Amino acid sequence: MKLRTILLFGSPGAGKGTQGKILGKIPNHLHVSSGDLFRNLRIQNPLGQTFLDYASKGSLVPDKPTIELWRDDIENRIHNGIFHPETDTLLLDGIPRNVTQAKLLDDNLNIVGVLNLFCKDMDIMVDRLQARALRQNRLDDANLDIIRNRLEVYEAETRPVLDHYGDALVHTIDSTQSPVLVLRDTLEILAKLEA
Q1: This prediction's pTM
Q2: Which range is least confidently modeled, 2-6, 58-62, 72-76, 156-160?
Q3: Which end of the chain has less neighbouring CB within 10 Å, N or C?
Q4: 83 in helix, strand or coil?
């Protein structure tokens, strides 16, 4: 059975996590952040160490462990009654991160929409990431060189995922707005996807 899925998409600092946390409170919607899954791993866990090694450079964790971690998490949530594939919508944040991952997930996911949070002002994203680094003690957001690398990796590896899903599924939202206005625009699109 393919899981009904909406992707929260955008560069680092575009607001995926902020919107995902709010949208995940809607009944029958589950927000899953791949970054949170990795950050919640213990450093003693080999996968946790792998994440730390890549994140500290602003690079993406390789595809195989990323997909395995995601699949294990979803299976656990289904098994524990947190996610009901027959009735719930999955809100994925941070996965797929590249076209290879998108293809690996095609058999698992029924993508009904891609919410592309687009921030055209690089300075806004850098400010958001540096503020988040202070609030959440995030290594991958603290250093300006790492932030620049993450944004370059996004442009080179992640942005092409939009082409994989096509214009019919992609809904672009101006994320330079305040979080409340981004939420308003996001909910309007979500309502259309539910209709």
Answers
A1: 0.86
A2: 58-62
A3: C
A4: coil
Average pLDDT in the 70-91 region? 96
Residue 54: both structure tokens together: 């890549």
Whose CA is closest to 24, among 43, 8, 39, 9? 8
Q: Taking the mean position of all CA atoms in its chain, how far away is CA 5?
A: 12
Residues 132, 141: Cα–Cα separation, whole Å = 7
Per-residue pLDDT of 127-150, as tens digits, reads 777 777 667 766 566 677 877 888
> In the chain, where are the structural domains located?
3-190
- Contacting residues for 100 by C-beta, under 8 A, at least 6 apart: 63
Identify the residue whose tokens are 């991952």.
101
Which of the following CATH numbers is that of domain 3-190: 2.30.130.40, 3.40.50.2300, 3.40.50.300, 3.90.1570.10? 3.40.50.300
